[in-house]
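Running this now, will post back.
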Amino acid sequence: GTSIFPKTLERFNCFWNVVSTLAAVATPAIGGNKKPIVLVVLSKEADRNSPAVMAAIDRGHFVQLPNLSTDVCLEYAAVYLQVPRHAVPQPLLEFVSRVSLGNPLYVRETIDQLVKNDHIRVWRDQQGQLKNLDCEDDLEDINIASWAQTAMVGTTACLLESLDPLESAVLKMSTVFQGSFTLPDLASSSCSRWAGATHFDYLRLFRAVQELVDRRIIQAVQTGSGQPCTAQLQAYEMRNMLIRKVGGAMVLEAQKKRVKRQALIDRALLRDLPARMEQLRVRRLEPHIPWYYESVLAKASY
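Update: finished.
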């Protein structure tokens, strides 16, 4: 299920409103006679405030389906490729597990695209027995965004297009950083402190980052970017490889270089400039005597 225009409809959710109406039909009658209706609701995220969800939780009918673990992905990929588990290369397993995010549909689509584009090859003899399974070494360099016909890329692209402009810009900038990044790193390209930005600009940017964190698109991490100046700042990281690949394809190489350059300049200024400004402040506190008064003061002292 999905929500149609959540920003426009505010708290009204069309999907869960319909589910609540249908759940009223499947509710047992007052006399205790059960109606011959079974309602199965499958959604990406359950609305805990919905009467149908609360009724399912009370009756023990609420089931959460977590993502597949790495071991289960290995078993699933081996069965889908019709090969033994030990025949699946470790690089292939790691790539499929990271791209698919443990989604069985995404696992099948990833394997299909890898086989279709000859990134992996399964060799069999005339009897259909496995002879060898070849896998490319540079799977990380595959342009996943070109798989637009798949559900995983299409869903991810729709997610990116549904974001607000500032949230979309923050997400695209976050795909540039391979490791963790901070709020000043993002602000250096959109509202730099050295370019007359105000606290309100930082608040808008921080709100957009928090929206992405709440939607689990980016994650808040404990460690900073490794710079002493950012040790006390909250750091974030883009760990979703699928979103990173699709979102990164929407950013030009020149824009990626600009974001990295601005972040490096901001870190350098933040590290060196405060100390130099403090030296300048201390120097300004010293009394200044013009040179043409020095001779007069010297004569007056005698």
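The chain has a mean pLDDT of 81. More later if anyone needs it.
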